[in-house]
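Next up, sample data.

:::
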Amino acid sequence: MRLASPSTARGNPILKALTVILKALTVTYREKTSYSRMLRCSAALRIMLFPRTIYQFNSMNLIEKLRHPTGDHDPLYFIDHRYYISKQFTLRQRIDVAMGHHKYELQAYNPDYVKQVYELEGILLWQRCFDDLKFHIVLAASADHRAEGDLTVILSVNNIRLSSISFCYLNTNIFGLKPNMTMMISRIQAHQTSDRERFDRHFKQNTPQLFCLNAVCGIAMANGFETMFAIKHDAQIHYEEHQSGFRNSYTELWEKFDAVEVNGHVYMLNVPLKLRPIELVNPAHRRRARARRRYWDDIFHSARQSMVKYRT
């Protein structure tokens, strides 16, 4: 990448911003293989088509904000990958979503939020201990796979991941709806580990994914969102690679909570989740249903309270 000369960049704020961005990318892509470096670099250079985005990116100091202490430092993650958030988003929409996400965080949260989420170990949303076992849910910046979602809610036991859900903040006008900020779930994953048995032993008739989902709902409520969006299975950015089970993990999960399909590639969920009335649950299963929901409620309210303190 050839950078603008210092004298030229100094007189033009957009060129100055572009110089900063390209300098950071030169370091980032140096670690890639030659072929990968060429592809990612070519894709990243598309940002030059959007001068306003260049200036906005630099003015929000995203180079430093996105410098994760352990993860891959890829500041143009929303443009140099094949997809970002949804396979259906155009390049212009991808840029709008990414910039909207960071702009919202800047306006909605205090500096402690950015430090805790992007630089440290994340915000503790909920925890429960059983003897030598510690279950906890945290909100953290996505260390890797950031194109699948800027932020990730992670459930762990003794620091071993059981499940995670990634999301971003976006404006609903991206789906042709009335402008309004909300959240969109773009990735849900159950991590394969023998420690899942520990979860099943202490949280019977429950799943790690639903613990994470209710934590995400708590975050949404802390932001005053009454609805949020979730990706449809065939719009998830890695659907072509791993089709088996995607419908069950995404679309069928959202439909269990009476989600409504919007715009052909997302579902709209209520916050809190719309649950079947307990009176309609089989009497033989009501006791277990109540026990499950008590944990969901506990996680929902704990996550909400944890996030409220970081709001501006």
About this structure: The two ends are 39 Å apart (CA to CA).
